[in-house]
Write a structure and sequence with these properties.
This protein is α/β, with parallel strands linked by helices and about 300 residues long. It has seven helices and 13 strands. The strands form two sheets. Strands 1, 2, 3, 10, 11, 12 and 13 form a seven-stranded mixed β-sheet that branches. A six-stranded mixed β-sheet has the order 4-5-6-7-9-8, covered by helices on one side.
Length: about 300
């Protein structure tokens, strides 16, 4: 479906939560006047009650889950540390049930009033070039490798109502750089390497062959604070030759304590027709006013670093 002429859309991307979500976060979103909220996951270690709070956010939203959201289920070492009886409880499924139709991992959600579709990447992704935790993905999603994973995303694209598509993943796609400081770069020993999701990259490339417009790919997982150096942060944003903005929103911790009280961050994206016009990282104070803004991208000033996609 072709996008009609509509007003600019204000989108909030919520980076890795890691147990930091309060009722005031919802009030902050409302004070920001957002039209759509995108959650990149990692709400906590299978943190059902945090997910319940996210589900209650009464603003149009789309959600994917991160690796921490299957912390006690996907891996053998996690299962050994599991704090609940896995024979009688299933916190992963409980999270999926709570979020319901807002979950777009391996799926999509159409937003007719915004004239766009959000397509989700691989849910619960750990990232990297190797296929991991096959038992988990086969049991939960019937997926047994990167090819099958890509096909799940492609199917979602094919059923999208709108030609304007936003991709939402926990981890970003491959092709954004191999440096440790790149948006999906490996910043632990051995340093360096592209730790993006190959299946997500394939799905995005396929979408373009269908003539889809992809203004934004939003993700998290790889925290802005680097492990190997504190002299600089991770690169948060890259634009492709096609005009797609790739945004890493994982500013962790997303709530900070200051003498002036709690401050909470959101990545704010302005979408104007088929293009992102501006991206900022904002901090909201206890009076729900923006007290700090870091401009990451402005289409008229070319503030973002452009790169050729691999």
């Amino acid at each position: 479906m072709t996008v009609v002429n509509i007003k600019p859309i204000k989108i909030a991307v919520v980076g890795d939560v890691h147990d930091q979500w309060e009722n005031d976060d919802t009030l902050a979103l409302k004070s920001l006047g957002v039209d759509l909220v995108l959650f990149v996951g990692d709400f906590g270690n299978e943190a059902v009650e945090v997910v319940r709070k996210i589900a209650s956010v009464d603003i149009p939203k789309a959600v994917v889950f991160g690796n921490h959201d299957a912390w006690y289920t996907a891996t053998e070492w996690g299962r050994k540390k599991c704090p609940y009886n896995r024979k009688t409880e299933d916190w992963v499924q409980e999270q999926l049930d709570i979020i319901g139709a807002d979950h777009v991992g391996y799926g999509k959600r159409d937003f007719p009033h915004l004239q766009l579709t959000v397509v989700g990447g691989r849910p619960f992704s750990w990232g990297g070039p190797e296929w991991k935790y096959n038992g988990f993905y086969e049991e939960r999603f019937g997926v047994n490798g990167f090819a099958a994973s890509t096909q799940r995303m492609i199917k979602a694209v094919q059923t999208a109502t709108f030609d304007r598509i936003l991709f939402l993943g926990h981890n970003g796609p491959t092709g954004l750089g191999e440096a440790a400081e790149a948006p999906c770069g490996k910043d632990w020993s051995p340093i360096g390497g592209d730790y993006g999701d190959p299946d997500l990259a394939e799905a995005i490339a396929y979408s373009r062959t269908l003539g889809k417009t992809i203004p934004l790919v939003a993700f998290g997982h790889m925290h802005h604070t680097l492990r190997h150096t504190k002299t600089r942060p991770r690169q948060r944003l890259i634009t492709s030759p096609e005009g797609t903005v790739y945004l890493n929103s994982a500013c962790v911790s997303r709530i900070r304590e200051t003498p002036q009280g709690k401050q909470r961050n959101f990545s704010m994206v302005m979408l104007d027709q088929d293009q992102v016009s501006e991206v900022s990282l904002v901090w909201v104070g206890e009076d729900f006013q923006v007290i700090e803004t870091e401009l990451l991208y402005c289409s008229t000033q070319h503030l973002a670093q452009s790169t050729s996609m691999l």
